[in-house]
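Q: Could you fold this chain for me?
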Amino acid sequence: MWDVLLDALLDTLKLSWILLIFYILIELVEQKIAVKMNSKLKSKYSVAVGSAFGIVPQCGFSVLASDLYSRRQITLGALLAVFIATSDEALPILLSNINEQGVWLKLLALILSKIVLALIVGYAVDIFARLAIKKSAQKEHGHESHTHDDHAHESDHVHTESHTHDDAEHDHVHEEQTAEDVDIHKGCCGHHIDDGKESNVKKYLVHPLLHTLKILAYILIINIIMGIIVYFVGEERLADFMSKSGVLQPILVTLVGLIPNCASSVIITQLFLDGTISFGACLGGLIVNAGLGIAFLFKSNKHIKENFAIVGGLFAFAVVVAITFHYIIPKF
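A: Sure. Below is the predicted structure, expressed as structure tokens.
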């Protein structure tokens, strides 16, 4: 048993310096591009931008996307693109194990799959939404054409006044939201990347170090648990159970991915590296693993039913992808 604990500790320590360097680089990237992403996400290329920036391994961009969507400054397609592309801690862990056989191929397959799926879903949702709005507008126009002229004139007058009032109210609300210091980028360690009061040492060393220690703690716990399971159950029995779990494996892993915490992506990635779960199950779990983005969506967007519909749709899509790839690529 002591050998299990020692092996888990040594395996975890091997990753420490690689993760620390990587998180320092991530912090530098976040500081430089977070503000640019804020403006780019509001452009007509928002889905593509969301897919690209979502791949960067951090949890702040999904929070930013949720905030912008709640204020209707980006489309639903752009929000889903960010969520699907986001992998949280998966990429740093895979990169820290890049010297192991086949890991670079797993990393490449994961990145490409998430980008392609994010682009497809993002643009498809936006196209469908535009068609639905256009169809609704045509129905309204056709209904109004059958009304009397006097009634139409009165309705138009009321609509104009209401529209003018709504525009003024919208502009006023927008000005208030723009003026206030909205918390759009709070990392999972609780710091604000755009806080000008923090020193460079705290930004680029203390926060990455704390984040590294947090992830290493997760990895150590998972390594210990997996080591104990293998010690008592046996590696062959465990592998046999997972391989015969069939459709349940991708569904269960996708459910784990819904946990709004770094730990869920760490668990999924470690199981994938160990060969315990399939590529499809890993992909499904990481599709719904949008860091703190989903949790922030429920906090910022007051339309609760809409939030559940978004998360439910994302989960359903992830399960379909997970099951499909689970049987197409059973072993990686």
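A (continued): The CA atoms of residues 175 and 247 lie 50 Å apart.
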